[in-house]
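User: Working on a comparison across species. This one is Protein BatD from Luteolibacter luteus. Can you predict its structure so I can line it up against the others?
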Amino acid sequence: MKAIIPFLITISIVVPSRAADPPSRVQTGWVTKGEIWAGQKALLAVELYAPGYFDGAAVFDLPKIPHALVLPPVGSPVLDSKVIDGVNYTVQRHELEVFAYTAGKTEVPAFKVRFAIKRQALDHDSVTQEVATQPLTLETKAVPGVKLGEWVITSADLKVEETWKPEPGKNEKTGAAFVRTLVWTASDVPGMAFPPFKEDPIAGLGIYPADPLVEDKSDRGDLLGQRTDTVTYVCKAGGIVTIPARHLRWWDPVAEEMKRVDFPARVIDVIAPPVPQPTMGEKFRRWMKEDWKVLALGLAGAVLLAWGVRKWGRRVWSWFLPTRLAELNPAEER
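Assistant: Here's the predicted structure for Protein BatD from Luteolibacter luteus:
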């Protein structure tokens, strides 16, 4: 009988490895060309290249730059497709708004952008991508009359509406409250770029600012910035109180003219409240607190005087009585 020796045949199937997946790309550049005034809007284009299909919205890690603002894109990106080195890319074009509020060169550092893609349209899972933009430099012109490093607002149509409810005036009472509202609007200026409205302490007034309300609107790249500031003033004491005047300068790039908004001073005449009369209980407590020492000293003086009179009074009194002398010729000797 022949032994049957089992054997194992191993078949190795070698699948050629697929070339590495092409990376995502990013390209940045300035859309705004020519001279830009300090505080004027500049558009920065960020193009994202996905080797496949985008899945969801992109997230921008925007940098914080001293004396400048970089705002995230608003609305939907512009879509396109390109072939680079034989690779098909889906392209998203985003436009970011950059404001440099001081003249000179402003460095915009590289920042990261995260987004998800699918290599194939029918893929179930997406792949997270992260790219870094190229650093750029924005150069702005100095506004005439503005010192180097000074913050300036640049807009062709800045408006400020100031209202008081109620209007402060004369014969006001302590505890009266006045609400001051400022509504700022300007094209191509974000609401957060308006200068903060801060009041210095004023004697006799309580000042309570509310958080500003920013309500920017954007329509096809046209930005209308709006911010509302609200401050409540409360009369704390009687007398005449003055809320000082203020003003804001801003640059009109169309007219190339420095303009000004004035906020007039407000005078509040507060009636001093009548001084309340103390009650009997308050008078007694005040007497116990302030006058008991005087009373104690008076009693001590009276006791000491009585003791002195008792001990030394007769002797002192005798000094003022007439003294009877002895007779020179008594009657018995006659």
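For your comparison, note: The domain at 159-271 is CATH 2.60.40 (Immunoglobulin-like).

User: Helpful, thanks.
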